[in-house]
Amino acid sequence: MTTQQEVAAFIAAEFPQTKCVVREISPGGATVFHEVGPSELRPGGTVSGPVLMGVADVALYVAILGRIGIVPLAVTTSLTINFLRKPAADRGIIGVCKLLKTGRSLVVGEVSLYSEGTTEPVAHVVGTYSIPPDARSQTGSEAWGALDAQPFTRG
């Protein structure tokens, strides 16, 4: 498993535009935090949908990097969001990701988004990432050994 510090350093170097901060990485997930600014609000005093989707995407990416190692070319192939309630405009957004399936070429995870300090999610996201074919040789990660026993199957 890649450490929180390694993933945070990679994100800071390669994605300096993101405001997301890596708070935690666990064997099957990750937690990120995004401080909401005035330019990220939409009329009606709520956090814009694209901000929420971005936080979810970063949370999923961080969880994947924590699981399989630093794989820069892992990319989003699907992201579905359900908005559940209005996020607080004056609080940051917390994204809590749980990886559901880690296969050789695809990783599926879900992210619950919360306004900081609340227990009810403001959105639920399911996403899929594609892992490049040469990722196994690039990372040398021990995580891939466990994946060999879990091939991706349909249905």
Characteristics:
155 residues, alpha+beta, two-stranded antiparallel ribbon, 4 helices, 8 strands, 26% helix
| Count of extended strands | 8
What's the pLDDT, averaged over the residues? Answer: 89
Largest sheet: 6 strands, antiparallel
Query: Low-confidence stretches at least 5 residues in length (pLDDT < 50)?
Result: 144-155
The shape, in one word, is globular
Question: Count the helices. How many?
Answer: 4
Give the strand order, joined by hyphens, for the main sheet: 1-2-6-7-8-5
**Structure classification:** alpha+beta
Strand composition percent? 25-35%
Order of helices and strands: HEEEEHEEEEHH
Distance between the termini: 28 Å
Could you please describe the fold and organization of this structure?
It is a single chain. With about 160 residues, the protein is an alpha+beta fold. The chain is about 25% helix and about 35% strand. It has four helices and eight strands. The strands form two sheets. It has a six-stranded antiparallel sheet. A two-stranded antiparallel ribbon has the order 3-4. A hairpin with a 3-residue loop joins strand 6 and strand 7 (about 105-115). The radius of gyration is 16 Å and the shape is globular.
